[in-house]
Design brief:
The chain contains 2 helices and 10 strands. The chain has a single domain, classed as Cathepsin D, subunit A, domain 1, CATH 2.40.70.10. With 133 residues, the protein is mainly beta. The strands form 2 sheets. Strands 2-3-8-4-7-6 form a 6-stranded mixed β-barrel. It has a 3-stranded antiparallel β-sheet with strand order 1-10-9, with no helix packed on it. Helices cover 8% and strands 53% of the residues.
């Protein structure tokens, strides 16, 4: 069982995430979002680690509360969150209109591979692998 501490200062469950790409690694802050089907990161951060739309697998349209947003999916060299590292991980890239100081959303495309228990008062998430990703 892995333990990750989270930040609640912005009213969200925010955890550290690391992404690796051709130009290096980025230490980011993602909000856990069990209402998001996909794990999402902003295009600017993907550019910083050496990826862009040319590396995408599929162009996508995401419906949000403010309308439709264009984006794409791609695979990053490594994605690390909640104490686990996933190589060749598929993520969704599009602009987040959150107004919060977060870099992305940790959605069900990542979370479904784990059993997790949020201990809000302790500001901890207990995580164990449920199946292979």
């Amino acid at each position: 069982m892995k333990v990750t501490r989270f930040d609640r200062s912005r009213g969200l469950l925010v955890v550290p995430v690391r992404l690796s790409g051709p130009r290096g690694e980025a230490a980011l802050r993602f909000a856990i979002d069990t209402g998001a089907a996909e794990t999402v990161v902003t295009p600017e951060l993907i550019d910083d680690i050496g990826y862009g739309p040319r590396d995408g697998e599929h162009i996508t349209t995401v419906r949000t509360a403010i309308g439709k947003e264009q984006g794409y999916t791609l695979r990053v060299q490594r994605f690390s969150a909640l104490g686990f590292t996933v190589p060749n991980c598929r993520i969704h890239v599009f602009d987040l209109a959150t107004g919060n100081d977060i870099d992305g959303l940790l959605g069900l495309s990542f979370l479904d591979a784990f059993n997790y228990h949020v201990r809000s008062e302790e500001r901890r998430i207990l995580v164990e692998r449920a199946s292979a990703i």
